[in-house]
Design brief:
434 Repressor (Amino-terminal Domain), mainly alpha, 113 residues
Length: 113
């Protein structure tokens, strides 16, 4: 029997799941509900106690954030539709009209001596 060794991909996936959940200010319970899992199951997944995840489970995690499965394992932090929707709810300051935008003063020309 082989020793219980965590694969680097699993460690990365679990870290990514936690980062995404925290970035979206979701509790484990809220995220589990969004995925359609029980809180206890998702808690076990994030804690690393469930190591053999099905492809369909990864799909549910990714779909909950509006991203693709490969983005869960991609090195850069993925931009999610959920985050974009939250940013859109925050009111943006209004930009001044074009007429109100002041142009920088033109550079002075050198005088020829």
């Amino acid at each position: 029997m082989l020793p219980d060794v965590e694969s680097p991909a699993l460690v990365f996936l679990l870290q990514r799941l936690r980062e995404l959940r925290e970035a979206h200010a979701l509790t484990q319970e809220a995220f589990a509900e969004r995925c359609g899992f029980s809180y206890k199951y998702y808690q076990a997944v994030e804690a690393g106690r469930k190591r053999k995840l099905r492809f369909s489970t990864l799909e549910r995690f990714a779909n909950a954030y509006g991203i693709e499965i490969w983005q869960l394992l991609a090195p850069p932090f993925p931009k999610t539709r959920l985050a974009a929707a939250k940013r859109a709810k925050v009111s943006q300051p209004e930009r001044p009209a074009e007429a109100e935008i002041s142009n920088p003063t033109p550079k002075r020309q050198r005088s020829k001596r």
